[in-house]
Task: inverse folding
């Protein structure tokens, strides 16, 4: 991947290694993130590794691949609880922006999944992460962390999670996308995060947000297909179809057929 960034065969082999060896799955995700950055950029390793090591167990696609292989993993809440026990506010700080973001993601996950982290604690962790990421001086690292942090405010449980704030999630993504010189892989991921956040915004012109989400999803589908990430492109295309169904351009019946 250093010699040929984005090499499809190499990326596929990494996924196979992650499935075969769960104990290194977090390192595989780290490698994927690492290769969103230009060749030769090495100073970002500690930040990304800190983030990935402390969040991989609550990332659904990673867990799903491992469980399909019959691996016995700790339940995500148990795993998250153990990680959070180590990532106290005292243990993370300005010197560990990856750890601060990881703590925010873990708090948000446990707040929504089990309720064992109360809303004020999760909110405080999120705000600490926002300040830490805004203080990062390396542009590409900041862009990557902004995208990951946006997931705190754009949780999977988009209907009832206490921290859901899709307007803020979108603003974090837009701030990241405004950073010049983003590699295409990172820009594509950020556009995907922005598309989802925009889709679920309920402030202001809701239909306008859906129309913007449609445009964003179209861009992401095209970029993923161009990059050879066909499975991800199809998943994004399914989200695009749902947005178009919600717009109901042809009436409810047509919209339902489109969604199906």
Result:
């Amino acid at each position: 991947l250093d010699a040929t960034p984005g090499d499809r065969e190499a990326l596929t082999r990494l996924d196979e290694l992650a499935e075969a060896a769960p104990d290194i799955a977090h390192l595989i995700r780290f490698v994927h993130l690492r290769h969103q950055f230009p060749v030769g950029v090495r100073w970002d390793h500690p930040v990304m590794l800190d983030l990935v090591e402390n969040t991989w167990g609550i990332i659904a696609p990673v867990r799903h691949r491992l469980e399909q292989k019959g691996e016995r993993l700790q339940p995500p809440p148990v795993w998250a609880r153990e990680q959070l026990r180590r990532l106290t506010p005292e243990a993370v700080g300005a010197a560990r922006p990856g750890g601060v973001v990881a703590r925010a993601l873990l708090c948000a996950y446990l707040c929504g999944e089990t309720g064992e982290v109360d809303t004020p604690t999760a909110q405080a962790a999120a705000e600490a992460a926002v300040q830490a990421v805004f203080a990062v001086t390396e542009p590409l690292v900041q862009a990557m962390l902004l995208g990951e942090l946006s997931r705190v405010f754009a949780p999977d449980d988009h209907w009832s999670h206490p921290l859901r704030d899709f307007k803020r999630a979108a603003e974090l993504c837009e701030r990241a996308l405004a950073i010049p010189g983003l590699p295409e892989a990172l820009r594509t991921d950020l556009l995907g995060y922005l598309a989802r956040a925009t889709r679920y915004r309920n402030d202001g012109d809701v239909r306008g947000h859906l129309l913007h989400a449609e445009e964003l999803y179209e861009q992401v589908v095209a970029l993923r297909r161009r990059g050879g990430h066909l499975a991800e492109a199809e998943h994004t295309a399914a989200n695009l179809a749902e947005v178009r169904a919600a717009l109901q351009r042809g009436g409810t019946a047509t919209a339902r057929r489109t969604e199906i």
